[in-house]
Amino acid sequence: MTINQAREQATEAMNATLGGEDVEERARQVRQESTFDELFSLWLEQFAKPHKKSWDEDERRYKLYMAKSFGSKKLSWFTTTVRQWHQGITKQQKQKASKGVTISSTTANRGLALLNTVFNQAAPDIPNPCRGVSKFKEHSRERWLTPYELSRFFVALEDPHTNLLLRDYITLPLFTGARRSNVLAIKWTDIDCEQWTWTIPSTESKNKTAMSILFVRQAIDVLLRRKKTATSIFVLPSKKSTTGHYVSPTKAWGSLIKRAKLQGVRLHDLRRTIGSHMAAGGTSLHIIGKALGHKHQSTTQIYARMNLDPARNAMESAAEAMEAAKNLSKNVVTISQAKKQGR
Q1: Which CATH superfamily is domain 147-306 in?
Q2: Average pLDDT over residues 240-254
């Protein structure tokens, strides 16, 4: 606290005293007030864990970007400082990244959204300090594997150094477009081996509605092979995991991408890859959205920019038809010429 700030607080306390306010009582209330750490713990136990599958991601985000900044602060402390904190996140060094690489604006927005949710749900009687704080403008990620990249990717995937369980795990989202969390927890009871469909219950779906995923030959081959030796309720079991199923293999994925000589590829980009190739093949956005389980049309809109080949073919056909008009010019006459010729 600077000298000027101390003077301002002293003046405020004196004015409050002259106005009849008990400043000692107010100070006592501040001392007894909960910290944000306590509020977050309350929210995590009563609201997040019972209702959110991704509560552990919220807890991780809190520890990384929020706890140090204001975990020990009293709830009354939250005013315009939230805006400053939100903007300051993007100036912080990103973990496990090259020097100078800072945290993205998207990550900062996720932190702001988490803070907003905690106050809304766990402290509804307190004015939400996030109100009025504008989010950073976000740009949709458009990374997907091109045919040339897929060629190198498949070589690395089929390499003997690639663990078979990892290979199967990657093959399923690549050829189904299913979300990573759903693929990890896929159960045999959710698969219809006659129709070769996979029903994701509403309780496990991101959109809170049941989803039907279609299996193509490449995915069916994986399922048939794993079914022969299955001893678990999960398609991708793991004895090392507390959940009983495979967990996201971050290090193994990084090694695979490095061997494939690819850069900037994430696991979620596999889901985007099949959607992109569907778009390039002329599939309508409605069908793509249905196949990938998009709840809103706007989510599928990203693939509109990738549906270039059918549009180019149509434009080329139109251009050829227009150019063919050159050969018709000799047969075109004006109305006056037609009258003279008795037409």
Answers
A1: Intergrase catalytic core (1.10.443.10)
A2: 89
